[in-house]
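Long-time lurker. I teach an intro course on protein structure, and each term I like to show students one example going from raw sequence to a predicted 3D structure in token notation. This year I'd like something fresh instead of my usual example. Would anyone be willing to generate the tokens for the chain below so I can use it in lecture? Attribution to the forum is fine with me.
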Amino acid sequence: MIVWLNGTHGAGKTTTGALVQGLLPNSRVFDAEKVGETLMDIKPALPWTGNFQHWPPWRPLVVETARHVLDYTGGTLVMPMTVLVEKYWREISAGLAHHGIPVRHFVLHADQDTLRLRIEGDTHLGPSTFRLAHLEPYADAARTWLHREAEVVDTTRLTPEQVAGRIVAAVHG
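-- Reply from a regular --
Happy to contribute to a lecture. Here you go:
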């Protein structure tokens, strides 16, 4: 099984993913961003599109990497990864379904003001114009498709431990 943690920057995906992994027996965290980083390391570089998710190889490579890891280890993969383009989410989820891999898709949500404060006050990564630039695309995706496609967990007033607890309870429920 895959527990996919979606949402924009500042929603708490990375922190929550580590906590969920600690609460789910036989689980591992797989950060699909590493697949993008691998593609970014190709020399000469692939044509730049502004985001590695726009490269056609990224999505099937995420599916195949997850499939092969699960074939090797079994258990659950916890995948904290923002996907805001509906077509890309459909491609990934269809690929996983093709291999018979069940996916629990959660969106970690917070209001725009909370997200902005979290990003601007991030002491680990520091303030980021890249992360702030994704707030509006997230809001658009949330309004148009994302919240219909996932189980939404509002993180605005919850601790990361509470968010992880809700996700694990939903997975076990």
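Some talking points for your students: Residues 142 and 148 are 8 Å apart (CA to CA). The longest helix spans residues 58-73.
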